[in-house]
Write a structure and sequence with these properties.
198 residues, alpha+beta, Rieske Iron-sulfur Protein, 2 domains, 3-stranded antiparallel beta sheet
Amino acid sequence: MSSDGVNNERRRFLIAATSAVGAVGVGFAAVPFLASWQPSARAQAIGAPVEVNVSKLKEGQILKVQWRGQTIGVLKRSESMLSHLPEVDTHLRDPSSADSEQPGYATNEARALKPEFLVVNMHCTHLGCIPQVIPQVGAQPFDADWKGGFYCPCHKSKFDLSGRVYTGVPAPTNLKVPPYSFVDDQTLVIGIDPEGTA
């Protein structure tokens, strides 16, 4: 075998080995680069949309998530819970949500795209405390004729099961409804309005 043949074999081996090491290096560099395209926790807190799986929520349960540094609640309501909404209209400050911050598609009694799911900013509109969710109908220490809803223990503000504020409490407006839309029957996205709405 000539010395030229040995050098060619060695050259091919070195080129193949260098190429393999380079490919592995590119792979290691690409993974963090591609991962950097995903929104960070900080970006999500600033305002990136948040997906919420609602498939396992039971009636009367609320799921709390963070969006833009705020606690957003997704409450699954039963037909019975929804049936009590008209019963409290005369006790509410803004039953039609005319003076409340919300998207146009939430200007109905349920204040929701789908009546069974209430999506609401959980911060009391008085001083920002997080109200308790008390979906059960029945006498409570703060209301003898409670029809279910939200109760803020900080300063005793009350909201119905659509987040509408009662009269005679410190909170000035209804709980806010953030922009949201449904991807499918099991998933909603907080931070994005449905197409063609605002």
